[in-house]
Amino acid sequence: HGVCSGWLALAICLGQLDISWWTGVGLPFSIAYLATDIIFYCVPKRDIGITFHHIVMMLCHFTSGTQAGAMIAGAGDAEWAQWLSVCGYLSELSNPFLNSRWLMIQTLKEHNMLYAVNSVMLLLTWLFGRILLMPALVVSKISPRYDDFASRGLYDCFAVAVAGHVIVFLLSLDWLRQLLRTGFYSFFFFSPKSKSESNVNVRATK
What does the pLDDT read at residue 205? Predict the structure, then answer.
């Protein structure tokens, strides 16, 4: 999911793919994944945090999948809403590194340089896509368009746009706290006791 959505979003932001890839491939795939994950993972595991995250993601993004929905969500600017959706999914860039970290924690017997490199990439993409980007989008892209939403009476759409980014930011801060709870050294350098972190990685992977 992280590869298909996050890295597809990055390719679109870099101009390598047209935004139609997002409405035709990336977003439908992600919504289907999130719904399936709620049914087959979150409910059986009673994982309230991940369920909440998935519901927020679906509510904030599904309207951008159609031109009509994006027109409403974007207060008359469908392209703005679709681009905001694409940018928001840059938060998924870190997930492949998180999955790789979990796999290495389960299989490594001693420290490997690849583990350190992967951990560096995980931290960088996490800080960029979740901790820095979410508030930056609220300040630079969403807040300046308040008058456009207000003139159409779309206060609910504006609130959803802001709240979605704030919620993902707060959840990401908490997950980062869990990942770093044993300190920076153990985050970058593997030891057998790192296996105790695996549950945190599983939760955050979703």
Answer: 47
